[in-house]
Predict the 3D structure of the following.
Amino acid sequence: MKVLVVGAGQMGGGIAHVAALSGDEVTLLDREQRFVDAAIATMRKNLDRGVEKGRVTAHDRDAALERITPAVAWGEFDVDVAIEAATENEELKREIFRKLDAATPERTILASNTSSISITQLASVTKRPERVIGMHYMNPVPVMKLVEIIRGIATAPQTYETIRKLAVQHGKTPVEARNYPGFISNRILCPMLNEAVFALQEGVGTVESIDTVMKLGMNHPMGPLELADFVGLDTLLAIMEVLVDGYGDPKYRPCTLLREYVDAGWRGRKAGLGFYDWRSGERRARTDLTASGVPAFASDGAGASSGAVVSPAASGGNGTR
Ligand SMILES: NC(=O)c1ccc[n+]([C@@H]2O[C@H](COP(=O)([O-])OP(=O)(O)OC[C@H]3O[C@@H](n4cnc5c(N)ncnc54)[C@H](O)[C@@H]3O)[C@@H](O)[C@H]2O)c1
């Protein structure tokens, strides 16, 4: 198939990877060349690792990379399927769906990798609601087996069937969910991640203890704060906003500390800082904050006069008071 992927971030890059490896001709579009270049560099690194581990042949890696065409400008895209994987923002996605409707032939299926936004709403800005659908991959795309498929109210059965087969071709297990905010996956996952941030904010536990409880006590492979860093704190916040708006239930309200981290630009692993420090490429505890994920009060000691963020070490404390 010919596939256009819009957005070359964590998800778009991963979707381009699995699509190209499975034989699709992929055009990868983002706003700026550096985003597309970074996505292709990550793809190359991951494919190289696959070759080293014997999961991919060198020939398949090279062929996959050749099937990717980078793009930064909107033009006409003669593709069978477009998969939108841009930032989780409803207005932005509506704009992209309008553009996709104009830039692709009538036969093209327009899919969204949105984590939470209504497929019916995205479909409503196009002239082809019967060919609009949710195709929700999980992060990291080359590793995770699930694709949630969400039909809008007008999605045609043929559209569903084509997308179901495409997900299988990409090596995934498709599962259908109804078009409710957050679908199945994020309706259940994101309130748990948000609750972990509340627990941190209220001092119930530290970053480390909250993640350890969920790993050792609940057998989760990753703690919720680490997972939030992987998801992207901006994405988590956007999903919680969709849930609280969509259901009108305050139990979904995003935690203030989550909002403050996003305001600070601490958007998780992709930004280098979140609940952990990822700047070295590995997960490390943050040394500029207490273990409770907030700066120590200036009146507690060092740093008060400079207004600088006080590290637990600099304040002489263990950050748990
Ligand atoms: N992060 C996750 O765990 C996860 C999992 C499943 C689904 N999703 C969804 O996938 C989508 C992308 O998330 P992500 O984690 O890859 O975010 P990201 O921030 O890593 O990437 C978003 C990309 O979209 C690009 N973009 C923004 N506006 C654009 C435009 N007008 N045209 C083209 N590209 C544009 C940005 O430049 C950026 O490269 C979101 O809808 C998110 O909810 C995320």
Notes: Confidence is low (pLDDT under 50) at residues 303-321. The first strand starts at residue 2 and ends at 6.
